[in-house]
């Protein structure tokens, strides 16, 4: 239940519909189902197995399984960094849901001028105070629950609230399906249009499949370590996958017919849920708007809360595994992720930091892309390579069959086919494909290389130097000394490049405006 609570979150209700909408509706859905069941579930089962086998958080788990090749633990670290980034963007969006909950129950959404919810959302998300207050509130709530003990509080609460969420999604589906013109939305969701499916889309959908199951970042290793030894891991993985997918598809069924019935854009991006659903609630009258709108956004916030808690829990457990005090790690992590979240909130469309861009994307867009598209597939690839090729087959079999007491007719397909070949090949293919297809600006590529060098290679080197006193030290010292100015240089070139592009764009815009003014003047003169 806890793992399902982690998996079912904003990813299902907020992110899945807009990803589907952006990349061709049904085409995206088919691909998503394929990715979820063949790759996502394979990873889920692998992570649960690693976790239960070792009883550790990711870094220590990899160490325990491969004591000789300690480099593997950095795969665990990369996953935890991904968790941290997800937590930050999660706080921003969860804050939005809190705000919408409040606006629904207080009746403010009924009075939105001309029913312009897109404008309302844009104004709210770019305002300087409200989103930040909401996200800090949400972070404090998460922290308080972590500090107060997860097992007794939140698990009991989520066992009640998750079914309620399901009921509410179903009610919304019914309402949405009975709107005039609903069939267009269904057709959009279920009729595949492969022309909209770009490589970028394939990567985004793969990323979404992993994101939605919370795999590829080690959280399920942490949860695996909590699973009793006599539970059936395969069944658990199956249940989590089915529940998670069902909620995502139902959210799509609730949203798309309404999108079409009210003439909205199905590819509305991150604002989709916030722009479109209030329209639907308002169509149910004032009471409907307050009751259904309030309940929906409350439950969305609860779904987000159970996921945010598990993110903070995974990070806190990591500290605890290394002997750090739980409460102290939880507080520090909350403060740092709040700081990043505030910056991300300000960088959203129209916000005060929105004009600071790297390769045409704001910090918010970067976090969304990194945590949704790029990082989970990379971490997942490394995880599955470890699982399929570096873990002992016998110990996997032993763990999955509960020491030979469970029948495992699916083992061959799972291990020899999916885990060793299909999943790594698919992940690699999609990643490579998107690298070759993407039209990155030079500046973006440079900055990404610089960041990777600086934040991954350099610490690795320092860690290495600190540990053994071999002759290789010299190389790392040299690299550390060379890398710092190189980092600075790359950043300078990159920023200069994007600054140049920005200036050029301003000049172009000015030209267009000048031409418009001239033609306006001449038309006046003619008259
Ligand atoms: N699966 C969550 C969702 O669908 C998001 C998520 C990704 C997550 N990774 C996580 C949640 C790790 C908790 C822990 O919204």
Report on the structure:
The chain has 20 helices and no strands. The chain has helices at residues 2-7, 10-22, 26-54, 58-65, 73-105, 117-125, 130-148, 154-177, 182-190, 199-212, 219-226, 233-261, 272-282, 285-321, 326-346, 363-390, 393-400, 411-437, 442-467, 473-526. α2 (10-22) crosses α12 (233-261), α3 packs across α9 (182-190) and α3 packs across α17 (393-400). The model has no long low-confidence stretch (mean pLDDT 83). Bound molecules: tryptophan. Tryptophan binds at residues 6-7, 9-12, 83, 86, 211-212, 214, 217, 219, 307, 310-311.
Give a quick rundown of the structure.
The protein has 527 residues and is mainly α.
Low-confidence stretches: none
Bound molecules: tryptophan
- The general outline is globular
How many β-strand stretches?
Answer: 0
- Number of separate helices: 20
User: Helical content, roughly?
Assistant: over 70%
Largest sheet, strands/sense/barrel: none
**Gap between N and C termini:** 74 Å
The arrangement of helices and strands along the chain is: HHHHHHHHHHHHHHHHHHHH
Radius of gyration computed on alpha carbons: 24 Å
Please report which band the strand proportion falls in: under 5%, 5-15%, 15-25%, 25-35%, 35-45% or over 45%: under 5%
Structural classification: mainly alpha
Mean pLDDT score, rounded?
83
Indicate the topology:
Elements: H1 2-7, H2 10-22, H3 26-54, H4 58-65, H5 73-105, H6 117-125, H7 130-148, H8 154-177, H9 182-190, H10 199-212, H11 219-226, H12 233-261, H13 272-282, H14 285-321, H15 326-346, H16 363-390, H17 393-400, H18 411-437, H19 442-467, H20 473-526
Bound molecules: tryptophan.
Residues 6-7, 9-12, 83, 86, 211-212, 214, 217, 219, 307, 310-311 line the site of tryptophan.
């Amino acid at each position: 239940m806890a793992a399902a609570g982690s998996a079912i979150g904003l990813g299902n209700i907020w992110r899945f519909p807009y990803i589907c909408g952006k990349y061709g509706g049904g085409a995206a859905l088919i691909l998503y189902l394929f990715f979820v069941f063949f790759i996502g579930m394979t990873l889920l089962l692998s992570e649960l197995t690693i976790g239960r086998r070792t009883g550790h958080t990711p870094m220590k788990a990899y160490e325990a399984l491969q004591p000789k090749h300690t480099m593997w633990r950095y795969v665990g670290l990369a996953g935890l960094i991904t968790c941290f980034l997800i937590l930050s963007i999660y706080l921003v969006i969860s804050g939005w849901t809190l705000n919408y909950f409040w606006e629904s129950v207080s009746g403010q959404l009924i009075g939105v001028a001309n029913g312009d919810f897109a404008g309302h959302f844009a104004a709210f998300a770019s305002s300087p105070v409200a989103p930040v207050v909401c996200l800090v509130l949400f972070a404090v709530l998460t922290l308080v629950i972590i500090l107060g003990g997860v097992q007794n509080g939140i698990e009991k609460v989520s066992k009640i609230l998750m079914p309620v969420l399901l009921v509410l999604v179903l009610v919304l589906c019914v309402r949405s399906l009975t709107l005039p013109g609903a069939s267009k939305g269904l057709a959009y969701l279920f009729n595949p249009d492969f022309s909209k499916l770009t490589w970028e889309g394939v990567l985004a959908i793969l990323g979404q499949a992993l994101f939605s199951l919370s795999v590829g970042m080690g959280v399920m290793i942490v949860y695996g370590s909590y699973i009793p030894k006599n539970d059936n891991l395969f069944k658990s993985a199956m249940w989590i996958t089915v529940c998670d997918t069902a909620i995502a598809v139902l959210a799509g069924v609730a949203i798309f017919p309404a999108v079409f019935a009210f003439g909205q854009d199905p590819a509305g991006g991150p604002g989709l849920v916030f722009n479109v659903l209030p329209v639907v609630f308002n169509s149910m009258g004032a009471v409907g708007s307050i009751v259904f709108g309030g309940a929906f956004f409350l439950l969305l916030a609860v779904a987000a809360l159970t996921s945010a808690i598990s993110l903070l829990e995974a990070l806190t457990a990591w500290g605890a595994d290394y002997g750090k005090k739980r409460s102290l790690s939880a507080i520090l992590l909350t403060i740092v992720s709040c700081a990043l979240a505030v910056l991300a909130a300000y960088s959203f469309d129209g916000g005060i930091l929105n004009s600071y861009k790297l390769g045409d994307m704001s910090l918010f867009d970067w976090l969304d892309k990194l945590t949704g598209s790029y990082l989970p597939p990379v971490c997942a690839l490394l995880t599955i390579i470890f699982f399929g090729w570096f873990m002992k087959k016998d110990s996997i079999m032993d763990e999955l069959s509960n020491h030979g007491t469970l029948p495992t007719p699916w083992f061959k397909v799972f291990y020899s086919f999916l885990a060793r070949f299909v999943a790594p090949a698919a992940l690699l293919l999609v990643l490579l494909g998107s690298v070759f297809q993407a039209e990155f600006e030079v500046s973006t590529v440079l900055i990404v290389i610089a960041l990777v060098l600086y934040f991954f290679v350099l610490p690795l080197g320092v860690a290495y130097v600190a540990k053994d006193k071999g002759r290789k030290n010299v190389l790392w010292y040299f690299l550390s000394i060379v890398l710092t100015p190189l980092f600075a240089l790359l950043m300078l070139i990159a920023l200069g490049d994007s600054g140049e592009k920005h200036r050029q764009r301003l000049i172009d815009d000015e030209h267009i405006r000048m031409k418009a003014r001239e033609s306006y003047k001449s038309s006046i003169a003619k008259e």
